Amino acid sequence: MDTVRVAVVGAGVIGLSTALCISKLVSPSSITVLSDKFTPDTTSDVAAGMLIPHAYADTAIHKQKQWFRETFDHLFAIANSTEAGDAGVHLVSGWQIFRNLPAEEVPFWADVVLGFRKMTEAELKKFPQHVFGQAFTTLKCEGLAYLPWLEKRIKGSGGLILKRRIEDLWELHPSFDIVVNCSGLGSRELAGDSKMLPVRGQVLKVKAPWVRHFIREGSGLTYIYPGASTVTLGGTRQKGDWNLSPDPEMSKDILSRCCALEPSLHRAYDIEEKVGLRPFRPDVRLQKELLVKDGRKLPVVHHYGHGSGGISVHWGMALEATKLVSEWVHALRNPAPKAKL
Questions:
Q1: How far apart, in whole angstroms, are the C-alpha atoms of residue 304 and residue 310?
Q2: Domains in the chain: boundaries
Q3: H or E element: which one contains 128?
Q4: Rounded-to-integer distance, Cα 317 and Cα 329, Å
Q5: Is 278 annotated in some ligand binding site?
Q6: Is 146 annotated as a binding-site member?
Q7: Was 225 annotated as part of a binding site?
Q8: 223 belongs to an annotated ligand binding site
Q9: 4-333: which CATH number, 2.40.128.710, 3.40.640.10, 3.40.50.720, 3.90.1300.10?
């Protein structure tokens, strides 16, 4: 086998970053991304894109920290380059605030973000309902800019991007040697994974150019994230809800909660309602599987189930998924000798 043919199913931030990593690190290879949805119609386009890790209960902390650090370093390099504007990546400073003392005053990711410290009493006066807070600088990755930027780089390295709905991974055999399943919620059907559930998130995108600092309640349910052109106000977390239509009452509640933290948002204008379905799974699935059917074999790497934390770990996990692809490539290029009868 010379050039290995890899299909990546899914074109959110997980699929595109994994495809780009494979194109850079697996050689020689040809990469094809297949999806029925592309930017601006993916969950990644709705996401606020703040690098504040979501904790995965069944994943070792050192592994989560590695994924976050690799992602932070990757995006920090972009933020410090001439590509920052095109990629939609920039630094943003702000506060994470708590109504009660958190179990962990210093989270595992504190030494990855920049300038992490406990908030002063003077700073906390801004938030009279809160007793504790953390101040730090992190990165914001705007999906509406970052996804097209990733697509451009995939195409620039010779990859193909095709709009096609995949109903069964076997459709890709024998055209491809390896399939990488980054289909998110689509894995309920594609991988028969009943653990996959939507967690509905509704946000408001508003114009409030005077808001420069992020504010996030420790629960992660209420947040104000300033971006390049809009401020994202959130949010909701509705497990098992597939409804993509905005709920006006929820929008009122989101705006009310955010105005309680930042009263100047009463003057926000050009308010847009957005809904995304986070691809929730009790634990992220990142593993190899050999599908076998009627004597045919299809090597697969599953990479999905990141919930609300995908952007914070996408590059680190894409690097790990690429290692699994490399293991399949090695197996295909060096098949085990058949035992003699």
A1: 9
A2: 4-333
A3: none
A4: 18
A5: yes
A6: no
A7: no
A8: yes
A9: 3.40.50.720
